[in-house]
Amino acid sequence: MRLDVVTIFPEYLEPLNVSLVGKARARGQLNVHVHDLRSWTYDRHNTVDDTPYGGGPGMVMKTEPWGDALDTVLADGYETGSGAPALIVPTPSGRPFTQELAVELSERPWLVFTPARYEGIDRRVIDEYATRMPVYEVSIGDYVLAGGEAAVLVVTEAVARLLPGVLGNAESHRDDSFAPGAMANLLEGPIYTKPPAWRGREIPDVLLSGHHGKIARWRRDEALKRTAAHRPDLIERCEPKVFDKKDREM
Ligand code: ADE
């Protein structure tokens, strides 16, 4: 998969050299290019923003640097046979970024990210590229960041770990909170490792029972309890058949 990021803070993307994403790059599973938007400014101050038409607070990112940057990045990707691009625009007014969307993006060959600072990018830039490629305007949560770079890191990590061969153990996705399957829409419950007792705290007996059926049931009960406590909205989204009599007594 190819990833391009155009930003006024290239150094903000340094974490893409570390850990899972860094290793995926080193192995050639991810081909990452970070570009400085100011390379496509031609005035003395390398201006990327201006005041909003219609008035109001803050500044708006200008059309020209973004247009020139994206044209250059897209031309390079097309030349090198990167496949069909999709534009990922992080914005608090985007659609929620979910595991389902992470899976969809992980199936694409090439993602181009446009993290914005200030109040955002002149709308015409997004409308222009939307005529040529899929555009995903995504929000990573109901809060406002100072810019989209942190959202790029979040989306990249969620997508990269889904790429074939990136996670050591292919099973590791299986029980993820939000993964499809029997536990769909339930948050993962608690997990434990050795030693069996620590500061007087013992792990639940069932986990030492060797009884796979009982362990699975316990894990599901714990997942249900945790989901009810932290995300009751997710319980409401579950199909009724997910629950049995024992659940309803909980
Ligand atoms: N930029 C600023 N806030 C954001 C958010 N919540 N999600 C994605 N991009 C953003």
TrEMBL record:
* Residues engaged in binding S-adenosyl-L-methionine: I140, G141, D142, Y143, V144, L145
Keyword Isomerase carried by entry: no
**This protein's superkingdom?**
Bacteria
List residues of the tRNA methyltransferase TRMD/TRM10-type domain.
Answer: 1-236
Keyword field: Cytoplasm, Methyltransferase, S-adenosyl-L-methionine, Transferase, tRNA processing
List, in alphabetical order, the Gene Ontology terms for molecular function in this entry.
tRNA (guanine(37)-N1)-methyltransferase activity
EC number in record? 2.1.1.228
Record InterPro entries: Alpha/beta_knot_MTases (IPR029028), tRNA_m1G_MeTrfase_C_sf (IPR023148), tRNA_m1G_MeTrfase_TrmD (IPR002649), tRNA_m1G_MTases_N (IPR029026), tRNA_MeTrfase_TRMD/TRM10 (IPR016009)
Chief localization class? cytoplasm
Asked if the Swiss-Prot or TrEMBL record annotates the protein with the keyword Acetylation, the reply is: no
Q: Which Pfam families match?
A: tRNA_m1G_MT
Q: Which Gene3D superfamilies match?
A: 3.40.1280.10, tRNA(m1g37)methyltransferase, domain 2
UniProt enzyme class: transferase
**Reaction equations catalysed:** guanosine(37) in tRNA + S-adenosyl-L-methionine = N(1)-methylguanosine(37) in tRNA + S-adenosyl-L-homocysteine + H(+)
Annotated GO biological processes are: methylation
Can you say where in the cell this protein is located? Cytoplasm
* Similarity comment: Belongs to the RNA methyltransferase TrmD family.
Annotated function: Specifically methylates guanosine-37 in various tRNAs.
Q: How does it assemble?
A: Homodimer.
Protein name, UniProt field: tRNA (guanine-N(1)-)-methyltransferase
Native source organism of the sequence? Streptomyces hokutonensis
Give the source lineage, highest ranks first. Bacteria, Bacillati, Actinomycetota, Actinomycetes, Kitasatosporales
Name the gene. trmD
